[in-house]
Specification:
The complex is a heterodimer of chains A (508) and B (473). Chain A is built from 10 helices and 28 strands. By secondary structure, chain A is an alpha+beta fold. In chain A, strands 18, 21, 24, 25, 26, 27 and 28 form a 7-stranded mixed β-sheet that branches. A 5-stranded mixed β-sheet of chain A has the order 9-14-13-11-16, with no helix packed on it. In chain A, helix 7 packs across helix 8 and helix 7 packs across helix 9. The radius of gyration of chain A is 27 Å and the shape is globular. The two termini of chain A are 37 Å apart. About 13% of the residues of chain A have low confidence. Chain B is of the alpha/beta class and 473 residues long. In chain B, helix 1 packs parallel to helix 9. The mean pLDDT of chain B is 95. The chains are: A alpha+beta (508), B alpha/beta (473). At the A-B interface, strand 1, strand 2, strand 4, strand 5 and strand 8 of A face strand 23 and strand 24 of B.
Amino acid sequence: MPTLTLPPVGKTASKATILRWRKLAEQVVRKGEILLEVETDEGLAVIESAMDGIIKEVLAPAGRTISIGAPLAVIEGVANQSATQPIKQKSIPVTKTTISTGKVIPILMPKAGQSVEEGVIVKWHVQPGAMIKKGEIIFEIETDKATIEVEATDSGRLARIVAGEGASSPVLQPVAYLADNEADVDAFIAASSTSPASPAAAPAAPVEAAEKPSVELAPPAAAIGTGRIKASPAARKLAAERGVNLATVARGSGPGGRILSTDIPATGTPKPGLAAAEPVAAGELPAGAIRKRMSGMRKAIARNLTLSKTTIPHWYLRARINAGPMMAFYKSQKAKVGCSVNDIIVMASARAIMDFPAMHSRVDGESVIEFSGANIGIAVGMDDGLVVPVVMNAEQLTLAQLAVETKRLANQARAGRIENMGQGIFTISNLGMYGVDEFVAIINPPEAAILAVGAVREDVIVKDGALKAGQTLHLTLSADHRLIDGTLGAQFMARLKALLENPLQLIA
Amino acid sequence: MSKHYTIAILGAGPGGYIAALKAAQMGARVVLVEKDHLGGTCLNNGCIPSKAILGSAELMHRIQHAAAMGLEVPAGTVANWGKIQARKDKILQTLRAGIKGLLGARKATVLLGCATLAGAGRVVVSGAAGVLEEFTADKIILAVGSVPSRIPGWPTDTRVVCTSDEALHWQTLPRKLLIVGGGVIGCEFACMMQPLGVEVTMVEMLPQILPNLDGQVAQTLRKILVARGIRIFTGVKIESLALGGAGAVAKLGNGESLETDRVLVATGRRPNTADIGLETIGLTTERGFIRVNDRMETVLKDYYCIGDANGRCLLAHAASAHGVVAVENALGQGHEFKAPIPNAVYTFPEVGTVGLTAEEAQAQGFPVAVGNFPLSFLGKALAVNDPEGFVKVVRNRETGRLLGVHMIGHNATECIAAAGALLHQQVSVQDIAETVFAHPTISEGIKEAAEDALAMGLHLPPRKFLQVTAGVE
């Protein structure tokens, strides 16, 4: 999802303080509508939205002072082209055919990125026999990078779908055909498959055109009031659970026809694709079992972690931290800078990492690359897997800056944009919020180590021979033994432990 | 053998007598020495006599403007200066007796005479007839106060060239008065004398009157005083002053020559530390002031200095607060003095300020936002026919904390107490905006200005906002 950022306010101000928000989370805003009031050295200003959408999360609450360019809010909606910032592409036009004959127009799997070779159709928005219009969203695809809505570039009757929901298709291959009747489609398919000349017959220009859509900005697919479905978040969630297409709900009972959760019918067709099971091959499965296609993200996870576990000699060490001081520090800092416990662990790790050159290095073939800063990956769990955006030079950030940055990265990641991927030297994976005591993580290649963070628990602490109630936390480091030996790993963990048990050092 | 005390206090002004009461309350054996009247400058030559006369003068001013409130006051209301003086003297006597009673009730020893330090821990008290008494003490608090400055080279005839010490006790009023210095004392005297029929001219060397206060406050007061017929020169020096004519003739830096009956020199006060024997204990001064830390400790162990003599803030309420801190520290229950000290100027309308001005806050590096509310928007101000003035609230933009409140208007010196309490509690301006103030009052203006500082005032037209479009990433 796009993030709205603080634009330059006035002539010289480099930062602004949020005075108050006029819009709240989950409120619909239109481009040009005033979102919030800010103050700078130069005076008062109001910030208006650069696009239509729904405020999903306010990232800069009232009272906070932020720099120009810092995030204000996450907005769900369609970016308007007139905004000055580059806009993440949300939909792309379907690739035009290069072999169009007569009244049959094939619809091709678009090439949604330079390295994309195939796409999986997760949803068809139109059914065979339907009349479709140019610009209408007709299907959604998933690649190993993102989920993309695809628009029609031609109008006509959708005669046949040849790649159904869940089907995978190489890029620039037909997934459906526009034609007035079925016979024309049959004739077209027969002609193209028997004509060895067809690739040669395609002139150079159309091929170029076929590449183009991946970098072109498409017009917004839908906007509030023109095509966007107005529905409450609860309704959206329920619709997804029940497999209801919101477009099929005639009119909501909320203000302006907004669809509310009570408007969602009890049953729908199970949603295909990611959220629900879709048998892709009826093969020899045990009764009741189903086979599902791996998503692009799952495939990437599978590939990376298999590589890691089979090529990196992992070894592990565990430390039990007296978490009392850290939690006290967290409580005091949370009020001030809005940080999480994880931000404190990231900060302490960054400091400890910079004390040991091997800890900010990674193996590259038979050489070792030493990085100048602690680029720390933050594992962000998603519905269907996880991604690891990276905080660059985390050792240089204050706790307040870190809190803003990790939140921003997580929001960006959930919006499909993973920042600084591949530039990390160390990852932190925290499952503490799920109550996990401790766990062992697999190194995120090509990094050299990963820290697994468990839950802060009430525990017995023995001090000077006496038992005392307190709080503890288990940290487990998985390290690449090609780079990090036992002594070094132990020294690093000791340093990290010392920092977390004396957290005031972090802001000293 | 001489007597010995736990704490000895030199000077019974608002610093010293409060320190004595505090020490006695805490069980210390305390002696208080005063060479003149109990109550010091504040009660005898400062705050109280001036307010007593200002009380008469303000009523006169109101009578002169009674028609505006629908009162047909018969012509011929006359200010009887002698009776005004007698009323004032009675107030002073009452309050002196009150202090004496309080000290007696706490069994604090009071010695009347001139105290001189005489080596470590030793004090000699002498009168006209020589040494009266000698004593020693564990801790000595210097509360010796200050005296009005005079200008070197000017005539010394105190019948013509006066300071506030003389002016508050004049037998007669002058016809024309030249006030030298546009600070708090100068402004109060100008305000006091004008309704009593004195033709007042005030000359200030600096570019604004009330030079240490908020510029907008000073500007507003100036306009009001000028409208009443008081002549005010700022940025003008008096080149020379000589006796002559009806009283004296002054040559101003702007070339003008002023003839006047009397001159009031109100250019400041200097510490009264010259003849108290500091050299016998080896304590040095800076321009006469005895430097202290936040615990009121001098550089010399067991010696404390409070009030005007330490030069931190020449106000009675500051001295009293210092006195309590010094005693607590002397008796081992120490804390540091950090509270904000309000300023009160008893002109009519009054001025009350506390904390930093916007300019001071900016100079100290705070990100500043300011709220302003004109009192003419308040029902109470119109009801009492005092629509002039405003409240200004200074806020730290990033933390939201209140940094200062500056107001001029009816009862501002009373209203500022609320602001001082809020400032001392380190509240945010949001907290003030959320506080309910009684209506209709003048103090409501503080809440209104706080709301304006947050750009959320309801009794003001909407603030101007620059309009910009958010970036998108």
